[in-house]
Specification:
Helix content: 40-55%
InterPro entries: Palmitoyltrfase_DHHC (IPR001594), PFA4/ZDH16/20/ERF2-like (IPR039859)
Family: Belongs to the DHHC palmitoyltransferase family.
Membrane topology: Multi-pass membrane protein
Pfam families: DHHC (PF01529)
Subcellular location: Membrane
Order of helices and strands: HHHHHEEEEEEHHHEEHHEEE
Largest sheet: 3 strands, mixed
Number of helices: 10
Length: 351
């Protein structure tokens, strides 16, 4: 085995250490709550059963959303964003950066790409050899370009992006609620053990430590959840919050914001009944996005992507769905709703 390959395998194994730590903490919390609290400490059967039912509901939703975040493979750009063979050969032979940019611009004219680098150039990934779709970034840890990349999270050992951002937000929400349920139900027994109203048993350590751990995790997770809910409301990724996306007329941190309700719908979908479940319901295909700065025709974008080799087999969720099922038209500042689907959105051309 080559040394570089061995080091890469060791690095990948080490990347699972944070996930293992979280699972050990969660596994211990399950044992401490179910066995030490409910079985050995709570004397009342009705109270014990009600605590167990509530606890298991939130435990199930928490672990479901957590593992969906971990197991959802990041979505990468489709073949439509690869350079055609002739242009690729020409690009690789060309040594002048200006000439290379002209080649990229020629190919990008047929793609729904509107963001640029800080210098105004077409965003091209040399590692993946693709023109980057809007909001797409290369992750050095995952070694791939990730659609609508938010960040790489070591606690799930995965990139958080278009394919699993909803799961990640739900994971934070249910983790917070899981901690709240533990703190709210454990506190009375925590106080009794702390004030010596209950005899010292093997459950005392677990109950005291369980309350402290749940409270500390709740404080840290709540701050992160609040930040990501704010990002959802603004329709920004963590990357875009620190570095505003650059359009043809300059950077604009609110370039993808369509109003609070539409921003939320992009992540959670337009069917409220699916919002609380970690199932994919986000709008669009991750390749093209509505903006308030430029006109994008999703039907045309879909046609271009299909003609350039994009297919559902490429692995993107809902890859056959046009971007948000929305057509851009100016309509005197009003939105039209037809059968629960927004079919027209006002485009504000001002920065």
């Amino acid at each position: 085995m080559a040394p570089s390959h061995a080091l890469r395998c060791c690095k990948r194994a080490l990347n699972w250490v944070p996930v293992l730590f979280i699972n050990l903490v969660v596994g211990w919390s399950y044992y401490a709550y179910v066995v030490e609290l409910c079985v050995y400490t709570i004397p009342n059967n009705a109270e014990r059963i009600s605590y167990l039912v509530i606890f298991h509901i939130f435990f199930f939703m928490f672990t479901w959303s957590y593992w969906k975040t971990i197991c959802s493979r990041p979505s990468g750009p489709s073949k439509a964003f690869c350079l055609p063979r002739a242009e690729k050969e020409l690009y690789e032979r060309e040594e002048r950066a200006e000439a290379q940019q002209e080649i990229l611009k020629k190919v990008a004219r047929n793609l729904p790409v509107y963001t640029r680098t800080a210098g105004g150039a077409i965003r091209y990934c040399h590692s993946c050899q693709v023109i980057k779709p809007d909001r797409c970034h290369h992750c050095s840890t995952c070694e791939m370009c990730v659609l609508k990349m938010d960040h790489h999270c070591p606690w799930v050992n995965n990139c958080v992006g278009f394919s699993n951002y909803k799961y990640f937000v739900l994971f934070l929400a249910y983790a917070s609620l899981y901690c709240v349920v533990i703190c709210a139900t454990v506190i009375q027994y925590f106080i009794k053990f702390w004030t010596k109203q209950l005899p010292d048993t093997h459950a005392k350590f677990h109950i005291l430590f369980l309350f402290f751990v749940a409270a500390l995790f709740f404080i840290s997770i709540l701050s992160l959840l609040s930040y990501h809910l704010w990002l959802v409301g603004k329709n920004r990724t963590t990357i875009e919050a620190f570095r505003a996306p650059v359009f043809a007329n300059g950077p604009d941190k609110n370039g993808f914001s369509l109003g609070f309700s539409r921003n939320v719908a992009e992540v959670f979908g337009d069917r409220a009944k699916y919002w609380i479940f970690p199932v994919f319901s986000s709008l669009g295909d991750g390749h093209s996005f509505l903006t308030r700065l430029v006109h994008i025709d999703p039907e045309q974008a879909k046609s271009v992507l299909q003609q350039n080799g994009k297919s559902p087999a490429d692995g993107e969720p809902n890859s056959s769905v046009p971007a948000n099922n929305i057509q851009h038209t100016v309509d005197n500042g009003k939105e039209k709703i037809d059968g629960g689907q927004m079919v027209s959105v006002t485009v504000n051309s001002e920065p």
